[in-house]
Amino acid sequence: MADGRITILVENTAGKRGLLGEHGLSFWIESDGKRFLFDTGQGHVLLSNARQLGIGLDNIDAVVLSHGHYDHTGGLGDVLRNSRATTVYAHPAAFDAKYARNPDGSARNVGMPGLDERMIRDMAELVLVEEPTELCNGLHLTGPVPRTTDFEDTGGAFFKDRACTQPDHLTDDQAVFMESEAGTVVILGCAHAGVINTLRHVQSLTGNRPVHTVIGGMHLLHATGKRMDKTVDELRRLDMQRMLPCHCTGMAAVARLWQEFPGRCAACPAGTVLEVPA
Questions:
Q1: Residue 163 maps to which CATH number?
Q2: pTM of the model
Q3: Which of 111, 183, 196, 233 has the most other CB atoms within 10 Å of its CB?
Q4: Helix (H), strand (E), coil (C) string for the chain
């Protein structure tokens, strides 16, 4: 196990002077002497925030995509055009067409903007992830997350077609986890597979080691009261030391988690730095 550091480059909110917020998420992960970018936000603030924080995106070992939605992939083109040769890790379905249904029944495109699989292969080495994958010593990608709970769904009306006739189960959804002596640190994109499904999967991959920290989007903004109750029960059973819900978790869900787990929840706006001891 190696020391690690997680810096929030993009989040809905910004927490330091000179940084900008946008609806999106991007993490800068340092582990075992290597540098990874986990998601890229929409692309409007990533480069500016990185410069402001003194992070050189031209010197990364790999980009990892949690899934193919615009608010996690929009900055990928800028990163690849401005970096040395690098590697991109993504599930094959991240490149599929993706739509969300609006309240009035119309549809909007929520897929990866401006890039397709061929274009990415022209700029980087593309690794298609369909199973748990080691990124470096102590840092892993979950691959597709099994859906085992009876109370979690993708968190919205997502489809593969503009007519909204083919549901998108977001099989591309995946998370990153980092090993430490204190327990596992889990980094979520949007947890469309379900935050509890994701945490259960990580424990199954780590020999049931305790989860110390979870950070990222939990996509609970549309969660029913029943789902929130069961989510809280499961999180209480896991007995984590730190929870940093953000992005798509939703204000009401974040408030509930802060109330249920006093002293364990924290905000993580852009600019937050989380040290992960070995």
A1: 3.60.15.10
A2: 0.97
A3: 196
A4: CCCEEEEEEECCCECCCCCCCCCCCEEEEEECCEEEEECCCCCCCHHHHHHHCCCCCCCCCEEECCCCCHHHHCCHHHHHHHCCCCEEEECHHHHCCCEEECCCCCEEECCCCCCCHHHHHHHCEEEECCCCEEEECCEEECCCCCCCCCCCCCCCCEECCCCCCCECCCCCCCCEEECCCCCEEEEECCCCCCHHHHHHHHHHHCCCCCEEEEEEECCCCCCCHHHHHHHHHHHHHHCCCEEEEEHHHCHHHHHHHHHHCCCCECCCCECCEEEECC
